[in-house]
From TrEMBL:
PANTHER family: DNA MISMATCH REPAIR PROTEIN MLH, PMS, MUTL, DNA MISMATCH REPAIR PROTEIN MLH1. It comes from Rhodamnia argentea. This is DNA mismatch repair protein MLH1 isoform X1. It comes from the Eukaryota. It is found in: Nucleus. Residues 1-21, 381-400 are annotated as: Disordered. Belongs to the DNA mismatch repair MutL/HexB family. One of its GO terms (biological process) is mismatch repair. The keyword Protein biosynthesis does not apply. It holds the Pfam family HATPase_c_3. GO terms for cellular component: MutLalpha complex. The keyword Transferase does not apply. GO terms for molecular function: ATP binding; ATP hydrolysis activity; ATP-dependent DNA damage sensor activity; mismatched DNA binding.
Length: 740
């Protein structure tokens, strides 16, 4: 017998009660807020760098492990954190930047909410090491969930603050899983440091992976924005930039000032790079970026993707910085007017620059007398060059023979241990004296050797080249200047002193022969009369300047040499681009090394040398003598003004006469004398000397040594005349340490 189950009648639907509103626990609230402020590892790095900037740091170093998830370490040399402030350092809404809401209207600091460090402690383990000026030791303390885990512990510390953020998002599993691509996050951090580096050019920045020997971003303080862009984004970007400026002082419309660089018609990239700072704050502005892309799409062919750097300055009260959790965006007063003005200036600049295009030169075949720059692929293969390697099989290098430097890195090793000093007014110097790091080979030297005597001189250089010194020069690493004449260079495991005057003199001589009759020219702004130059050179050599007979003899020598050089003007102009006009004025000089200009204080000596020391009768001796005179003139000599660092500072002090009545000074213990002499520094002359010496050192590092690696064929005499002196060997040092 089958029994059928009957369905139960449906029960009437029970109405649901509204969900109950609960007050969240403080830790949950803080963790949610932390997820908004610290969205990715790069967000934490940005907040820490801005804190370092607010601390008036001059050097900021960043180390990252696993894209920032395992470790973010930011060190600076700022003013540090007071011991009394450490207990509340990582509490929410604790800050030294403002005290009232009205302060937001005029805030100039990068941070102001007091949320960044607190947010990090809720999603990571944070350790702070800091020391303030005048303290004998620093303090280290760890934080979690906004509070200290222990009392601050005394420790050794260097000036400033170091913050370590470990195990980021350890308690946010979903967030951590979405950030497993460490390479992508690290590239974002490198891009962030690059943007800060080209804006804050008075600071040095570095960014490296934890444990890596070489930094992926490394800049030193400079006074040139273009040089900063060149060191970070490369020569190809810097050479295709146009300077733009815009401003408006009309209170009825907008008040702002903009300075920047934009790419020209020759620049080509796959994506837009826009670096925007508003009141020194790194931000994004979608409307401005779209306006720039519209201008480039309408002005340049194929809608080229531009490179744009802009720094906009407005009154603080015209900027609302408190509109985004990560301060990535700001709101501007009269934003549409400002963008419209900038757009018009950029469009006008691009249209004017579009009249000319620059194209890359075709690569020429390498020659025996002048090698060319290797391609990036070849350079990368040669980076670990070892002349003793005999086969493809890699062997472990003993520690005493390990080379830890890279000869392709232009940064001097000593600069990492010296306080960087901006080169004052370097941007305002004449373009002829501006030095750049790019060295370009112009022509195949074999094609320039039109005369047999020039070919013989070049063959002598090639045949007598010292192979051992050539290997040292090709693969050495510039360390820094040891004194006014000698530079420290490293080759493999040996350290050498190199005489930069001798090296540059020989380099310039060889380059004159290679560029024979194919020079570009430097036009003097004011033609220099030869008689005055020769007379000036004779006076510098005269041991008895007050003798009237010497004056008459000097005038005669000046007249004879001037007539001689006027007779040889055609030869000098055609072969060496040394142009002397009919009136005996020097008007043009040759470009021997690209982007390098000689010290014009040595021009009188050069003109006198042409008249007295050149054998004008024999062709080969004549051309060799002129080339040697040019080489000596263009060599990187120390400036005539003494080096202001060290004992040379005494030269710039002058005596100032003080009377007893000046400033109420009591000279009663001065033997009854009413007067006293006091030293006073001639700041104008001192500034000129500092600029000359700084520019020379920069030229040696970024122009001379790259050129030496490319072009110089060292003669055997350099091995014995003190041009190279070995001062240390790593293998010998290890033997000494082993005995100890």
């Amino acid at each position: 017998m089958e029994i059928e189950e009957s369905e139960a009648p449906p029960s009437p639907r029970q109405p649901k009660e509204p969900p109950k509103i609960r007050r969240l626990d403080v830790s949950v609230v803080n963790r949610i807020a932390a997820g908004e402020v610290i969205q990715r590892p790069v967000s934490a790095v940005k907040e820490l760098i801005e804190n370092s900037l607010d601390a008036r740091s001059t050097a900021i170093n960043v180390a990252v492990k696993d894209g920032g998830l395992k470790l973010i370490q930011v060190s600076d040399d700022g003013h540090g954190i007071r011991y009394e402030d450490l207990p509340i350092l990582c509490e929410r809404h604790t800050t030294s930047k403002l005290s009232t809401f009205e302060d937001l209207q005029t805030v100039k600091s990068m941070g102001f909410r007091g949320e960044a460090l607190a947010s990090m402690t809720y999603v990571a383990h944070v350790t702070v090491t800091t020391i303030t000026e005048g303290q004998l030791h620093g303090y280290r303390v760890s934080y979690r969930d906004g509070v200290m885990e222990h009392e601050p512990k005394a420790c050794a510390a260097v000036k400033g603050t170091q913050i370590m953020v470990e195990n980021l998002f350890y308690n946010m599993v979903a967030r951590r899983k979405t950030l497993q691509n460490s390479a992508d996050d690290y590239s974002k951090i490198v891009d962030l440091l690059s943007r800060f580096a080209i804006h804050h050019i008075g600071l040095s920045f570095s960014c490296r992976k934890h444990g890596a020997a070489r930094a992926d971003v490394h800049t030193i303080a400079t006074s040139s924005r273009l040089d900063a862009i060149k060191s970070v984004y490369g020569v190809s970007v810097a050479h295709n930039l146009l300077k733009v400026e815009a401003r408006d002082d009309d209170p009825s419309s907008s008040i702002f000032e903009m300075n920047g660089f934009i790419s020209n018609a020759s620049y080509s990239a796959k994506k837009t790079t826009m670096v925007l700072f508003i009141n020194d704050r790194l931000v994004e502005c979608t409307a401005l970026k779209r306006a720039m892309e519209v201008v480039y799409a309408a002005t340049l062919p194929k809608a080229s993707k531009p490179f744009i750097y802009m720094a906009i300055t407005l009154p603080p009260e015209h900027v609302d910085v408190n509109i985004h959790p990560t301060k990535r965006e700001v709101s501007l007063l009269s934003q549409e007017v400002i963008i419209g003005n900038i757009q018009s200036v950029v469009e006008s600049k691009l249209r004017n620059s579009n009249e000319a295009r620059t194209f890359q030169e075709q690569t020429i075949e390498p020659s025996a007398s002048c090698p060319i720059i290797a391609s990036p692929t070849v350079a990368k293969k040669d980076r670990h060059y070892n002349p003793s390697s005999s086969g493809p099989k890699s062997q472990k290098v003993p520690v005493q023979k390990m080379v830890r430097t890279d000869s392709l890195d232009p940064a001097g090793r000593l600069h990492a241990y010296l306080q960087a000093k901006p080169l004052t007014n370097l941007e305002n110097t004449n373009s002829l004296t501006a030095v750049r790091s790019s060295i370009r080979q112009r022509r195949n030297p074999k094609e320039t050797a039109d005369l047999t005597s020039i070919q013989e001189l070049l063959n002598e250089i090639d045949s007598k080249c010292h192979s051992g010194l050539l290997d040292i020069i090709r693969h050495c690493t510039y360390v820094g200047m040891a004194d006014d004449v000698y530079a420290l260079v490293q080759h493999n495991t040996n350290l050498y002193l190199a005489n930069v005057v001798n090296l540059s003199k020989e380099l310039m001589y060889q380059q004159v022969l290679r560029r024979f009759a194919h020079f570009n020219g430097i036009k003097l702004s004011d033609p220099a009369p030869l008689p005055e130059l020769i007379t000036l050179a004779l006076k510098e050599e005269d041991l008895d300047p007050e003798c009237s007979e010497n004056d008459d003899l000097g005038k005669k020598i000046a007249e004879l040499n001037t007539n001689l050089l006027k007779q040889k003007a055609e030869l000098l102009d055609e072969y060496f681009c040394v142009h002397v006009d009919e009136d005996g004025n020097l008007c043009w000089l040759p470009v021997i090394l690209d982007q390098y200009t000689p010290d014009m204080d040595r021009l009188p000596e050069f003109v006198l040398c042409l008249g007295n020391d050149v054998d004008w009768e024999d062709e080969k001796n004549c051309l060799q003598g002129i080339s040697a005179a040019l080489g000596n003139f263009y060599a990187v000599h120390p400036p005539l003004l003494p080096n202001p660092s060290g004992d040379g500072l005494q030269f710039y002090k002058r005596s100032k006469h003080l009377s007893a009545s000046d400033d109420g000074i009591d000279f009663s213990d001065n033997g009854g004398n009413d007067n006293k002499m006091e030293d006073e520094i001639d700041h104008e002359l001192l500034s000129e000397a500092q600029m000359a010496w700084s520019q020379r050192e920069w030229s040696i590092q970024h122009v001379l040594f790259p050129s030496l690696r490319l072009f110089l064929k060292p003669p055997p005499s350099m091995a014995t005349n003190g041009t190279f002196v070995q001062v240390a060997s790593l293998e010998k040092l290890y033997k000494i340490f082993e005995r100890c």
